[in-house]
Amino acid sequence: MSNYSLDLNIIFAALSDETRRAMIARLSRGAASVSELAAPHDMALPSIMNHLDRLEKAGLIETSKKGRVRFCRLSPKGIAPAQHWLAQQQQLWESRLDQFDDYIEQLAKDKSSET
Amino acid sequence: MSNYSLDLNIIFAALSDETRRAMIARLSRGAASVSELAAPHDMALPSIMNHLDRLEKAGLIETSKKGRVRFCRLSPKGIAPAQHWLAQQQQLWESRLDQFDDYIEQLAKDKSSET
C-alpha cells in the first residue's frame, strides 16, 4: 500500500469521530490549549489526550509545550489530502452526471426529430 | 448526537479503507457489477460484499439486482456531506492563515513607519 493510501486511511479514521471533528473545528478558528479543547467535552483527560494523539498521528494537528501548558494547532498540511481525494471523486461523479444529462438531451432531440 | 454527525462518522469510517476507496473511485467512472468491482482485488466474495455493505450503509452507493447480477452505482448524495464538512474547515483554516499574513504585513508596515 502506498504512503498516500496509508495516510488517507489514518486521516479518514481520525475524522470518523465526533469529538475529534469538534476539536478540528475548534482549531480551525485558532490554536488552543489542551484544557480549552477539552472544555466542551464531558470526558476524562486520558480520553482527550488519546483523541489528540490520533489527530497528531494523522498529521492533522501539531502540539507544542510552553511551560506546563500544551498547545495544539492545525497542521499546515492538515485535511488537504482527504479533501483532495474527495474533490477528485466528486468531480468525476459530476462530470458523469453531466454526460448523462447530455445523453438524455440527445435522446430527447433524436426522439423529437423522428416525429 | 445529531443525524448529520452520525452520518459523518459512518461516511468517514467507510472511506478509511483502501479497498472501499478503490470501489468508490471505480464507481465515480460509472456503474459496475459486483464481479467488476471485485476483479482488481485479491479477496473472497464475502469480504467484497462486506465492503459494499459498509459503503451502502454509509449512503455512498446504491445497489440493484437485474436477474442474477447485482449492480452498484454511486448514490447521488454520495460523498457530498463529507466534502462539505472538510471544505468548511479548510476555508476557516485558510482565512485564518490570511488573517495571520495580514497581521504580519501590518507589523512590518508599523515597523517601517517607526524608522
UniProtKB/TrEMBL annotation, chains A, B:
Pfam families, per database record: HTH_20
Record-linked InterPro entries: ArsR-like_HTH, HTH_ArsR_DNA-bd_dom, WH-like_DNA-bd_sf, WH_DNA-bd_sf
Domain HTH arsR-type span(s) in chain numbering: 1-94
Highest taxon of the lineage: Bacteria
SUPFAM superfamilies from the UniProt entry: Winged helix' DNA-binding domain
Name of this protein: Metalloregulator ArsR/SmtB family transcription factor
Organism: Maritalea mediterranea
Taxonomic path: Bacteria, Pseudomonadati, Pseudomonadota, Alphaproteobacteria, Hyphomicrobiales
